Structures are given as structure tokens and as C-alpha cells.
Amino acid sequence: MSGNDPSIPLASIPPQRSLSIQRPTRGRATLAPGLITPSRGTSATRTVDERSELKPAHYASAVREYAHLPNCIGDNYIWLARFLKSDETASTHVSPNPPGDRSPNPAPLVVQYLLGCNDDPSSPQHNPTRNLSTTSIQPLGPGEPTPATERTSADERRNRHEVKPSIPFNTPAEFFSRGTGEGFNGAQSSVVFLCGYLPGAWINHVGARYIIDPEFFCRHLDFRSPDETPKNFSIPALPSCSSFLIELPVMTIGIDKTNKGFYGKTIEITRREAEAALDTHRHRLAISDMADGESLIRDFYVFDDTHFAVEQRISICMEKSKDERSFQLLVWLDSTERLHDSGDSTSPSSSSPSSLSSPSLRSSFPGFHQKTQTYPWVIKQPSSDNRYLPVILHKHKIALKAHLLSQGILSPSARSAAHLPNDYGRSLHAAIMSQDAFYCLTEIFNFASSSQMEFLNLIDLKLDLYTSLPPEKDFEVLPNLKYSKKILYRYIQKTERVLESIRNATNKESRWPRPIDQTEKARVTAQNIERDFEHLLKRAQTLHSRTTEAIAVLMSSISIFESQKAIQQAEDMARLTSLAFLFVPLSFATSLFGMNFKELDDKKLSIWLWGLVSAISLLIAILAYCLFPYVERLRNRVKVLVVRWWKSIVA
């Protein structure tokens, strides 16, 4: 019998070790406040379930206690503790129709995909000869043979792309009760999507159900500006401290031709407005002034008057069960399909020349509906020229399978991260998903890498544009190159951390769940994902080097241009000096005859006398100018002779 068999009464089980807020270990741990521990005197009708021992309120209390430790080691959790506490006494029911949501059937806040169950091996879910798209195989224990998941039957190949079972949730109480209520299978693996902004009640319930490391929530809810000085410098942490956490940047490119203009002040003003809008968005997050399920953004990049990019994040946490026979994957998306009022006049029913301007795609980004203001990333007039570009995933021979797409047998690639929870895992083998946690994330990694590739392609194109402008535009191009270099530097840092997370999950010493004899498909998939992100890192480093070289060349060009201007100014000054050389003797003569001496009081003096004096003065000046080089050489010779004479005397 399994140690978690619900048929075993609690009275017949020896007392278990107490739970802590971290993932259970073999040693004893200190109880978090309010945790319920089993005892021998408990009624026999109560079943053993480790997740039922931690309640949502207790989860928040444990985080709050750690955040307020006197030695300040929990400073990073102060905001999270306050956020969880603010919703602790609130109703756990979250309205499925938040204010401003204009869609008749709003997308759920949480979607769960069940992967496998291992309490009943005879269950149809564990029959490898059945349809792999709707069933799963239990994770393998030590010594168990690996099923031949590669050798699928004709029926399996035909039904591989059927929709996998998913459970939508709109209330945290409903989500938590499914984990602790009757019929819950504690050994069942799953992928749980969290969509958009979630209040503290949701985090308490999700964290308590799976005993999630609060670091996962703390990092995802960190919306500080990259330029802001932190209270401490513990983040980013070492890779070994984040072996079960992954943070994936997701980029979305937008085109907006309504704001005409070219380089110079216009683009600088737009970027300053974007920074101000980001500060406003972060302030709303800090004070929890967000609608449930509203989309979030991490950064906003303005490249010129036409193209911009929005950065969002996908945070992933893998949590294994206590007996390590199952796992839970939490995937928190910044984007959501819920359409909130963004200050534009476009409604879901409005027609658009392009399906890419649909409300479901525009809802991936938050709008600022206070009064008539809107965020700069909100496209006010969606059209074929003004729209968000979809993320296009290249798949082998996909262009020959249009009939499968039209019939619904294949699902089109997600156009934005908000579409990932829809029919997730359709392109993956369900049997492998139930055994290999990293393989379950394949579609998420492929989407993130494709979006980042499009982002780098855009930067490459803009660098071509910046470096091809005429020299007179150099002063306007330089700020754009510096802006691109800053973006690439931050992107390189994030990609390096993603690669470390991938290696943490796929190396031989990894603690991520996978079968003892890993299938070839899972191994190749992991290698492809790592190779894709290595390519992204190399591409970003190449672009960063190119930007640095372009800035150096541009600075040299500007220096040469400034030198040429200085030479031109020197030539102009030489001309002015020549004119001054002519007028100085004349001014001397005029000043001489303007003196009040009695010798000059004779009113019969002729102007020719002034002309004669001026001519003599000019002649003397010219003679002095011509003799000046000879006088200078003579002075130098005399100086050398004096120095030699003095040295001879001293010697």
C-alpha cells in the first residue's frame, strides 16, 4: 500500500514529522504558526493528506513570521507578507466578472491540466496502449521498466492532438477544496496556469494547497524598476538556490503608425512618457490597485515612431510531492485573455481589418482607464497597420497541415502568452509529460524563445537603420544606439539566468522528476530547448558587440566632425585676424591724432598727414610680422647659448 493511501485511517499511522513552509525534508522542521499536525487521537474517518495540514491563513502567517524576524533575513518577504495579509480576512470568492471586463465568458484565473495518477495502476490513465492525449502514465519508480512511448499505434498518432483534460477555476476556495476534498488524488501530477494579476487570497490558497516556496510568489510580484536601488543585493540569487524556479521573459512587438515623427525630440519624449507610464503601472501594483486577472507588464521599449515592444514574464515553479512520486508545475503568466477597459473605444464586437487586432490579443496588456488616459502600449486604433504582432512558431511541415488546423485536429500556435493555457500540451506526448516535468514545459519554452527571437530580429533591423543614416543624423542616432545597448545588456543577463535554470533542470544531478531511462524524445527536446537559448544568448551578445562597435565608430565620426568644425572655425578666425591686422595700425593713427596735445591743435593739419602716419604704422606692423619668425628663432638660439653657458659655469 502507498503511504498516502486514503483508505488508511489516521489512527493506524505513526505520527509524522511536522511540516514547514519549505519543501519537506528528511530532518525535523519547526512548525509554522497554525499548522495542524496529525495525532493518534484523531478520528479514524480522517485521512492522511499532507496538503490538508496547511491552511491558506496559516500559509500567510508563516510568511509574515519569517518576514519580521529580528535579524532581517526576511526583508525580501515584507511586501509579500503585507500583500497576503491584506486579503487574509477578505472573502475568498473572486468575482468571475471583474470591473471593466466586457467579454461575456471571461477566461478563468487558474487552469489546471491533470497529467497522471499512480494510486490505481489498473486505471485507464495508466494503460500505455490507450490514447496518449487524454490519458497519462504514472511516474516510474526505481527499477520499473520504461514503457515504449515512442512506438505509438496508429490510433495514438491519429488522436495525439486531442485536447487534454483541463479544469478551470475562478475562485480560490474552489481550487483549494479540490485539493483537500473528497476524491482528491494526492499522487496526481498536474500543470497549473495562473493568469494575470491574482489577489492575496489566490496566492494563499495556491501556496497552501501545494506548499509552494514563497520565493516563487515573491519574485513574480517584484515589480521594481531595474534602475531602482534595492534594499539589499540578494537577487538574482545563485543558480543552486533556484533549482526549482524558472523566469522566462516574453516579448511582444507592436506597430503603431498613428504617432508620426522621426528621430530627435519626439522619440525622447515618447520614451520619457513610457517610463512615467511604467512607474504608474508599478505604483498600481504596489498598492494592489489592479483588477483580478488584469495583465501585467515588466518593461516597455520604444525603438522609433513605429515599432515598440512589451516585455512580460512567465514564472515557473516545480514542486514535488512528499513521496516524490508526482509533481506540480505552477506557471504564472503576466498576460491574460480577460479584456479590461483600456481607455480605447474598441469593443469586442468592433470589426478590424486584421484578426491580429482581436480583443483576446489586445487584452494581453493592461490599460489605464482612469479618466481618459491610456498607457503608451495601448493601441488606440487597431488596424492592419496598427496592431500587436503575433508570435509565430516554426514547425516542421506545418504549412502542409492547413486541413488539420481548419478541422480543429491541430491547434494554431499561441499568438500571445495569454493563449498558452488553451489546449496546452496538444503537441506533446501525454505519457512522457506524466513522467518528465521539464518535458511538460516544452510548449512554454518554445513560445518564449520564439518571441525573444522576433525581439532580437527587430533590434537587428533597427541597428541596420541606425547605422545607415547620413552623417548629419549621427547626433540623433547616438541616443538610440545607447538605448539598444542597454536593452541588450539586460536581455543577456536574463538569458544567462534562463540557461542556468535549464541546466539545473536537465543535468544528471537534477532533482527534477524524470524516468530513470529517459526517452529519446524527451532528451532531444531538452537539448533543443537548451540549444535554442544558447543561440539567443549568442545572438544577443553579437548584437551587443555590434552596438558597442557602432557607438565607438559613431563617437569617432562625431570627433572627426567636431575636429573639422574646429578647423573651419580656426580658418575663419585667421581671416578675422588678417582683417584686424589691417585695422589695428589705422586705429593707432586715429587714436594718435585724437590726443589733446598742443602740437596737434593746429587746425591746418591735412588729412594726408594722418594717411602718411597710418601708412608708416602699417609698414612697421607688416615688417614686424615678417620678422617675427626670425626673431623667434634668434630668441631660441640665445636661450640655448645661455643654458650652455650656465651649465659650463656650474660644471
TrEMBL record:
Residues 152-164 have a biased composition (Basic and acidic residues). It comes from Sordaria macrospora (strain ATCC MYA-333 / DSM 997 / K(L3346) / K-hell). It is found in: Cell membrane. Its main location: membrane. Residues 120-138 have a biased composition (Polar residues). This is WGS project CABT00000000 data, contig 2.67. The lineage of its organism: Eukaryota, Fungi, Dikarya, Ascomycota, Pezizomycotina. GO terms for cellular component: plasma membrane. The keyword Membrane applies. It comes from the Eukaryota. One of its GO terms (molecular function) is cobalt ion transmembrane transporter activity. SUPFAM superfamilies: Magnesium transport protein CorA, transmembrane region. Keywords: Membrane, Transmembrane, Transmembrane helix. Residues 1-51, 115-166, 340-363 are annotated as: Disordered. Residues 345-363 have a biased composition (Low complexity). Pfam families: CorA. The chain crosses the membrane at residues 607-631. It is a multi-pass membrane protein.
